[in-house]
Amino acid sequence: MAKEPIIESEGAALDAVLGELQSEHAVKEISGWETGFVNLSRALDGMRPGLYLFIGPPASGKTAFAKQLLDQTAMHSRVTGMYFSFAETKKELRIKTLARLSGLDQREIRRGSAYLLHWYGVPRLAGSEASDLPPSWEKLKRSAEDAKSWLDLSYLIECQRGTTVQAIEAQITQNLARSGSEQMMIVIDDCQRLGGADQPLDMRLPLVAEQLQEIAVSLNMPVWAVWPSLDAGGMAGEAWREKVASPDVVLVLEQDRERTRKLTEPNQAIILHIVKNRGGEKGRLAFDFFPAFSRFAEAP
Q1: Less crowded by CB within 10 Å, the N or C end of the chain?
Q2: Which residues of 145-174 are buried (b: 16+ CB within 10 A; e: fewer)?
């Protein structure tokens, strides 16, 4: 029979806590993982364990932002990430990443090297050797090779209609054991599909959020839950804070229509509202979204 753990008073644990804090010699601007978005990292105090509820209307770039965030966190902080997708295939998600890294339009990448040859005015060649391919294709390959070290830390999982929260937790646990990682960052896109299809979205949200919060706590990792805003009236960001208690952080995407008019179509000016944040600041962050390249950039 396993022994019960010894319960230690806070006074008895104090020396160990102070020793752990003292051992951190590096001066840090943030306590969590670096996200690659300077202003977001500062506002959140870095990516830390907890449930992040990420909300936005259709076509606002939720998937692009979440994928870029996972990639950048893996790249800057060298942590493993898992992206669970209910809507987009692995191929589409990979094309988004390649477009962002290479600066090539997603449409060009989908059409392949033969199209790139034609589009850039280079005659189509019969050979398939790397030397026969156009500079644009070489740029794509080089971008992928440069990213391979941190892409080795990233995993994409296509979810099925019947995928449950329990199934996702089991996959995370298995990958933790297989990869030898102690912690991971998790993104679950279109996570409203984890709830019962017979329930309205408003009724699903508290239940799904509570279950995902349990995963974040039990595994001590950040979990980003991407949720659609389908309210025709355009519910204000602040209203989402009151809808569910579980998340540690609630973030809401909104198009900045006035600033968008100054950009070239189809580019969009986006405001990210941090309406709830137990571990840091609340506020508004400005981004520019470039759909062709599936890329977000912090706006000045």
Answers
A1: N
A2: eebeebbebbbbbebeeebebeebbebbee
Edge-to-edge strands, sheet with 184-188: 154-158, 80-85, 184-188, 222-228, 50-56, 249-255, 268-277, 283-290, 295-298
What are 215-252's pLDDT values in tens digits? Answer: 999 999 999 999 998 664 445 566 777 778 889 999 99
Report helix angle 135-151 to 106-119, nearest 10: 150
d(CA 271, CA 4): 50
- Please tell me which residue, 18 or 270, carries the higher pLDDT value: 270
What string of DSSP letters covers the chain?
A: -PPPPPP--HHHHHHHHHHHHHT--S--S-SSB--S-HHHHHHHTSB-SEEEEEEE-TTS-HHHHHHHHHHHHHHHH--EEEEEESSS-HHHHHHHHHHHHH---HHHHHHHHHHHHHHTTPPP-S--SGGGS-HHHHHHHHHHHHHHHHHTTEEEEEPPTT--HHHHHHHHHHHHHHH--S-EEEEETTGGGGS-TTS-HHHHHHHHHHHHHHHHHHHT-EEEEEEE---TT---HHHHHTT-S--SEEEEEEE-HHHHTTSPTT-EEEEEEEEEETTS--EEEEEEEEGGGTEEEE--
What is the Cα–Cα distance from 248 to 266, expressed in whole angstroms?
33
Token look-up 């806070």 returns 10
pLDDT per residue as tens digits for the range 91-125: 999 999 999 999 999 988 888 765 555 444 444 44
Contact 252, 240 (CB under 8 A): yes
Rounded (10°) angle between helices 90-102 and 106-119: 60
Tokens 């295939």 -> residue:
89
